[in-house]
Design brief:
This protein has 6 helices and 14 strands. It is α/β, with parallel strands linked by helices and 263 residues long. The strands form 4 sheets. The chain has an 8-stranded mixed beta sheet with strand order 1-14-13-2-3-7-6-12. The model is unreliable at 256-263 (pLDDT under 50).
Length: 263
């Protein structure tokens, strides 16, 4: 397999050339429920889920970003159906159900609240081999009272340092839209792009430098850009020639600035 390349083909063809346990990490958002126009292409979900399990290394993670369309007044439930298929039919663990919360979503009509989020399922092949948690400062610092039982069985107290940092929660907040998700104007020729910060946060959490990242629905190239800037190897698949051209044109900017050189 050639690294640092977006293969213009069905991802099943790309994965079919990969050996078993080849990829460290996958992050993607598939064309679920035909919510947006992906140049008319559809995907074979069940085959793709099985192939992702085969090519992923033990301890690897798949981040699967999905939501549900509303059909005949009811949400489809596709997100839950896919998650259960990954677990019950393929062999993944549902390691975490995270939320991608949009601070500024498009307003919607109808008898329901505005849709602010998508699911970010973390499917693991066994126990995750890498976890670099994003942390935040705790509200309280200094010393805390801790109860301990002494030799006599009586409670006494001692002062211990408080932890100054804690892991963030599993709801991730991002603003989206023109000039916000990315500064690369050409990316907006694609109908649904990842916020770059979302990809950065997940790659940071589940991989280390030198790991191999794969996006089977590469779209405008956000995963490729962020992975490479973070010193991760990467491969992508994208069936739409138009989107591959958009992604490659976008990535040229980082070649010129020496930010996108093979390592």
């Amino acid at each position: 397999m050639e690294l640092y390349k977006i293969y213009n083909e069905d991802c099943l063809i790309t994965m079919g050339r990969m050996p078993n346990e080849f990829i460290d990490f996958v992050i993607t958002s598939p064309p679920y429920d035909d919510i947006r126009n992906y140049n008319g292409f559809h995907f074979e979900f069940e085959k793709i889920a099985h192939e992702l399990f085969r090519i992923l290394k033990i301890g690897g993670i798949v981040i699967w970003v999905v939501a549900d369309a509303t059909v005949d007044g009811s949400e489809t439930g596709t997100s839950f159906k896919q998650a259960l298929f990954f677990k019950e039919k393929v062999g993944f663990r549902i390691h975490d159900t995270m939320i991608y919360y949009k601070n500024n979503p498009m307003p919607q009509t109808g008898k329901r609240y505005h849709q602010h989020f998508e699911y970010m399922f973390a499917f693991s092949k066994g126990s995750p081999k890498t976890f670099n948690p994003i942390t935040e400062q705790t509200k309280y610092r200094g010393l805390a009272n801790m109860k301990n039982r002494g030799k006599e069985g009586l409670l006494d107290y001692e002062k211990v340092p408080r932890t100054t940092e804690k892991k963030v929660g599993n709801v991730f907040f991002y603003s989206v839209g023109g000039g916000i998700s990315t500064k690369d104007k050409i990316a907006y020729h694609h109908p649904a792009i990842f916020p770059e910060q979302l990809v950065y946060d997940q790659i940071y959490t589940w991989t280390n430098e030198g790991d191999l990242v794969y996006d089977p629905f590469m779209g405008s190239g956000t995963t490729a850009k962020v992975a490479h800037i973070m010193n991760r190897k990467w491969i992508g698949s994208e069936i739409s020639k138009e989107y591959v051209e958009i992604a490659n044109e976008r990535l040229k900017n980082y070649t010129t600035n020496n930010l996108f050189t093979k390592k």
